[in-house]
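PROTOCOL LOG
Step 1. Enter all chains and additional molecules of the complex.
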Amino acid sequence: MNYLTPEQDHKIRRWERWNRNYFMFAFVALVVILVFGSQLGLSSDVSWDIPGILAVLVIVLIVLFQLKLTCPACDRKIGWHAKLMAPDQCPHCHTFLRSKEH
Ligand SMILES: [Zn+2]
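Step 2. Run joint prediction.
Step 3. Record the structure below.
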């Protein structure tokens, strides 16, 4: 069984931290956009164009974050297998995505 080196493990943990932080930020941002958007919509006939574009941007960035994660062992993209946290094993080379000391 292959494990990551501590440096490679550090890279994955850093990605997880950023990914989780961004996800929480995105969640708050979407709520704010929805609340502000509906308030604007109630008080006038402002269209949903700008809140809509912002919401799409926030969601696109979540996707980009997911696609940024590559396996440090084989350099292939882990992509949607990741979700919020990196998976236990790389789906391509089956290396455990943590160092052996863990
Ligand atoms: Zn791999």
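Step 4. Note key features.
The radius of gyration is 18 Å.
The first strand starts at residue 3 and ends at 4.
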